[in-house]
Design brief:
The protein has seven helices and four strands. The protein is α+β, with helices and mostly antiparallel strands. A four-stranded antiparallel β-sheet has the order 1-2-4-3, with helices on both faces. Helix content is 38%, strand content 14%. Helix 1 packs across helix 5. The structure holds flavin mononucleotide. The site of flavin mononucleotide (FMN) has 11 residues, from loops.
Amino acid sequence: MDVSAAISQRYSARAYKATDVEENKLKMVLEAARLSPSASNRQDWKFIVVKNKETRKKLAKAAFEQSFIAEAPIVIIACGMEPSAMLACGQPMHTVDVSIACAYMILQAYELGLGTCWIGAFSEEEAKKILRVPEHIRVVAMTPLGYPNQPPSQKFRKTLDQIVCYEKYE
Ligand SMILES: Cc1cc2nc3c(=O)[nH]c(=O)nc-3n(C[C@H](O)[C@H](O)[C@H](O)COP(=O)(O)O)c2cc1C
């Protein structure tokens, strides 16, 4: 599968089979994060791989009862280690860097036949408690990782005309 196919076909999976994810596939997904770009190549991130069923259930609860999260055999939690670092453009480095790494993981997972769903609706406080994440570290996102148990959903997207302008803001 090429990158454009992965970009156009990937979808958020909200139902998962209990089938385990092969270790080599998990490694490839994590490698995608490792190889992704970051500001000044700082790589100030940590990815927590959760397989324990009880912990997955707790995370699903912390994500306001999005129970499908715990259906997947793996949940990956993406953390930013230096939340005070800012880009010159005013954006927090860790949010941008960790989000790029998650996007890479999600696309790599799709190529491997695995489903993901970016989870942004969760209580960071709860997630940190469950995973014993130190106070100063931020949890940016999480995603279930597993074999999807649902057909691809249709994509609803704005047209290019709606989101692109040329030469100046319009
Ligand atoms: C920052 C962010 C936060 C999201 N949070 C959630 C979430 O908490 N729960 C969920 O089911 N989907 C979540 N999503 C998935 C979006 O709803 C989904 O990407 C969007 O509807 C487009 O659908 P698609 O991913 O199937 O193309 C999130 C996506 C992003 C990028």
